[in-house]
Amino acid sequence: MEYIYTAMLLHTTGQEISEENVKKVLEAAGAEVDEARVKALIAALEDVDIEEAMEKTAVAAAAPVAAAAAPA
Amino acid sequence: MEYIYTAMLLHTTGQEISEENVKKVLEAAGAEVDEARVKALIAALEDVDIEEAMEKTAVAAAAPVAAAAAPA
Amino acid sequence: MEYIYTAMLLHTTGQEISEENVKKVLEAAGAEVDEARVKALIAALEDVDIEEAMEKTAVAAAAPVAAAAAPA
Amino acid sequence: MEYIYTAMLLHTTGQEISEENVKKVLEAAGAEVDEARVKALIAALEDVDIEEAMEKTAVAAAAPVAAAAAPA
Amino acid sequence: MEYIYTAMLLHTTGQEISEENVKKVLEAAGAEVDEARVKALIAALEDVDIEEAMEKTAVAAAAPVAAAAAPA
Amino acid sequence: MEYIYTAMLLHTTGQEISEENVKKVLEAAGAEVDEARVKALIAALEDVDIEEAMEKTAVAAAAPVAAAAAPA
Amino acid sequence: MPHVAEWKKDEVANLKDLINSYEVVGMANLADIPAPQLQQMRRTLKDSATLKMSRKTLMSLALNDSEKAQIENLEDYMEGQPALIFTNMNPFKLYKILESSKTPAPAKAGSIAPEDIIVPKGDTAFKPGPVLGELQKAGIPAKIEKGKIVITNDKVIVEAGEVIPRDVASILTRLEIFPLEVGIDLRAAYEAETIYTSDLLTVDEEKTLADVQKAFTQALNLSVEAVIFNKESTPLIIQKAVSQSLNLALNAEILNEKTRDVLLAKAYAQMLALASEVSAKDENAVDDELKE
Fold this sequence. Notes:
The complex is a heteroheptamer, with 6 copies of chain A and 1 copy of chain G.
Chain A: H1 2-13, H2 19-28, H3 35-45, H4 50-55, H5 59-69
Helix pairs in contact in A: 1-2
Chain G: H1 6-21, E1 24-29, H2 35-45, E2 49-53, H3 56-65, E3 82-87, H4 91-100, E4 103-105, E5 117-119, E6 122-123, H5 130-137, E7 142-145, E8 148-151, E9 155-158, H6 166-174, E10 180-182, E11 185-191, E12 194-197, H7 198-201, H8 205-225, H9 233-251, H10 260-281, H11 288-291
Antiparallel strand pairs in G: 1-3, 1-11, 2-3, 4-10, 5-9, 6-8, 7-8, 11-12
């Protein structure tokens, strides 16, 4: 989750979620940086409204399984 | 929330949540660092089991999966 | 299940769910293509709102979750 | 979700979830392929027993789906 | 609510919720002190277990999460 | 929580949440005053609409599943 | 005090003594308390308060003659069969103790209903007879069923604040419904130049409990919202951060160790959902594995 936390952190401080910034934060946090994951993070977030995505519960994802618990 | 994201990030990378590390990450993320809040964060985390607090959320969001495992 | 995944994949990339496209994806995925099944799939999907059908999981799932939350 | 669907498709047809295969399928489905996300997908799935992950959830997911289907 | 906040404050610092202490805090907070309300507060709190009331609130708050996970 | 109760108390009596006032109340309540936490409190509250923040359920945010209850 | 009998002088002096030696002086009404219950209540109060009945004139004299400022105003609250109560307890606590020691009592014609008096539906002990007519006359819906008189519906027979009519009072007693309370009725209490009347003295514990919980919730909300770290708020702030981060990762389909299973499951669940729709249209559109 360190990549996500980094994105959240940059989003909160109002910085751009760029390769450079993500790497800088990850390094400051003592993480080994995987270039591909950095790029993938940025690509995945490109078209995403972070504010909205943060607050939107991933119902579809989390819930189906929760549902299963009920009838069991 | 930048202080808590920083703490989570350090926790995830396995680094100590010390004043120095928190400041380093916050600065890398371009945040203005408020010494008092850093100290308050660290003091508060002394009494908190981060893993446990995180697990509780994980349960909520992701763990339905685990729950599903049981009846299988 | 590969036929369904193929349909979902094409739906997500915004491509038409045509015989040609379905076959192309299945072949790329190394599947043996059953012409009859492809035709049947396409015919069946004509009357199905894919987006809605996929969301049904979420809805069905969300209900018990709501139920679980309610008594609190 | 196109990356995930592609992984599931390859898994279903018994093909390896390799960079090459993922790209081939995505291209056949008319998707723009982001190299970084492909790599991230493969890295994330490397240690995962997809069958198990699916089965876990599968049973789970199947139940509500069935339930949802019934009244429809 | 200033009388209740005062009581909660004293409870948290481990001080007795006595007339004298309540008045002292209220005065420090710049409130006009109504003797009758101080006395009423103390009488009312004699039969209220603040710790338990807080526990219940916390449990109620946490319940949805637990509830969702629990039905398995 | 004594710092929060102090802030709420001062807010209710219409007093400024200043270092001086916070300390005065905490001392009246018999608390040992930690300068750093006083400063952190004031910094944290600077941009916050206390009235609104008090009423906004924080706990719902912590419980994504509860949020899921509102499928919208 | 000329023209006053010696015993009366003693009594006033005695009352004055009590007034001056206790911080709190209450004025109560003891009307309608049966003697055994009054004995019981005196025992309850034994260690915490002294109850003193006397003539109104003597109590007035004692109150007026006391050097405690404003205490003479207590005489405005003499009602029924007045008595003075002396204690060093918080007057709110005194009131609470007195209220909780009250016991149910039969309805009395002409008294005021303290709250709605309800005759509940159900069987009565009455055999069919003239009592049925009396019930109906009092406005209680009753009929005969299986050899018994049965009340058919819940009925508010006297509303709160209304006078209890004679026939209703007698019926209520025969139905063993005791809508009144008897006990030491504290009308007012004096402490430190202030008179607290009974409406002020009513302490609402449920509201206090609710307020305590509200205060705690508000404090939690504020500390999470303003991100103020303390023992209680920090776990919630962590959960908020994790939950927001998971939401972002799942919504943006970012695969990592926490999200991959959920995302795989989501794909699988969607596939099954779509498959069930498709197979409902045409079984042959799905493979055998999905037909089961």
